[in-house]
Amino acid sequence: MSYFSDEEMKALTERLAGMTNPVRLVLFLQTFGCDTCATTKRILEDLPRANPLITVDEKNMVLDTEDVDRYGIVAAPGVAIIGDRDRGLRSYGAPDGYELLSLLEGILLASSGDSGLSEEARALVATLTEPRALQIFSTPT
Fold first, then answer.
1. Which CATH class is domain 6-126?
2. Who's near 27: CB < 8 A, 6+ residues apart?
3. Long-range contacts for 112-115 (Cβ within 8 Å, ≥24 apart)?
4. In what order do the strands lie in the sheet with 78-82?
5. Where are the domains of the chain?
6. Do the Cβ atoms of 22 and 111 come closer than 8 Å?
7. Burial 77-108 (b: 16+ CB within 10 A, else e)
8. What is the C-alpha R_g of the chain?
9. Phi-psi category of 41—alpha, beta or left, where left has phi over 0 and alpha has psi -120 to 50?
10. Which of 89, 125, 137 minimizes the C-alpha distance to 109?
């Protein structure tokens, strides 16, 4: 059974119509101690219906430790958003409500392969000599 109504699915399809390249969502779940894992799974399972360029690979946080380490996943549910290469885009928590918009933006960014940064910002980033982590937290309140 679909998580989204027909009207919502139509809106998702329209929103993801701008995808130009495939995107793989690597979904990390765990059976115990994760209240939002089932909801997240249902949401992500619907996304390939909205655009066939999206695929979803499900991993287990406890059993697939090599993949957890490879993608640097720190909590479940966690999603690695992978386009032509892994650019470190990650999403945590159930992508329901406002959080779904952030996930969709991540998918579109991964599909385009373009960060959207200005040339000035790209030049500044190019001067970094050590790895950096950028975390963005969102809440409607």
1. alpha beta
2. 40, 41, 44, 56, 57, 58, 59, 77, 78, 79
3. 112/18, 112/20, 112/21, 112/83, 113/21, 113/83, 113/84, 115/87
4. 54-60, 23-29, 78-82, 89-92
5. 6-126
6. yes
7. bbbbbbbeebeebbbbbbbeeebbeebbebbb
8. 16
9. alpha
10. 89
Q: Which residue has the tokens 């009207």?
A: 7
pLDDT in tens, the chain (141 residues): 789 999 999 999 999 999 999 999 999 999 999 999 999 999 999 999 999 999 999 999 999 999 999 999 999 999 999 999 999 999 999 998 889 999 999 999 999 998 888 999 989 988 999 988 877 777 665
